[in-house]
Amino acid sequence: MDTQKVDMFIMSNAKFFESHHLNAIRERLLTVDDSKWPMISTVQLKDPTTSLIISILAGSLGIDRFIIGDTGLGVGKLLTCGGLGIWAIVDWFLIQSATREKNMQVLQQFLY
């Protein structure tokens, strides 16, 4: 794929991924066929900041985990009221990296 397209994708979507994944994403995008570009450019990625806000406001209900696709953890948080509040507080620190990891998994589905 064209270097300019890859760099544009990385610059506009860097906040959705862990920083240590960016080089691997760039290298993989450079080897991808141009026919996949329309799909890759329209991938719906979750915003880690939005996940954090939702976690702070409704984390004890598991909504933050449902939104990023962790249905099992969402049900667990819902049934235990966020682990009696402890799990909900711990997720305030973990939800952004979990969101970025889920975004990486979504992108990998399109790359491979």
Write the layout of secondary structure elements.
Layout: H1 3-13, H2 22-31, H3 37-41, H4 48-58, H5 63-68, H6 71-79, H7 81-84, H8 86-111
- What would you call the shape? elongated
Sheet with most strands? none
Q: Helices and strands: which structural class?
A: mainly alpha
* Gyration radius, rounded: 16 Å
Number of domains: 1
Cα distance spanning the termini: 14 Å
Strand content: under 5%
Query: What order do the SSEs take from the amino end to the carboxyl end, as H and E?
Result: HHHHHHHH
Tally of helical runs: 8
Tell me the helix content. over 70%
Question: Which tags fit this structure?
Answer:
73% helix, 112 residues, elongated, 8 helices, 0% strand, mainly alpha
How does this model look, in words?
The chain is mainly α. The chain contains 8 helices and no strands. α4 (48-58) runs antiparallel to α8 (86-111). The two termini are 14 Å apart. 21% of the residues are buried.
Compact description:
By secondary structure, the chain is mostly helical. It has helices spanning 3-13, 22-31, 37-41, 48-58, 63-68, 71-79, 81-84, 86-111. The longest helix is centred in the C-terminal third of the chain and has 26 residues, at 86-111.
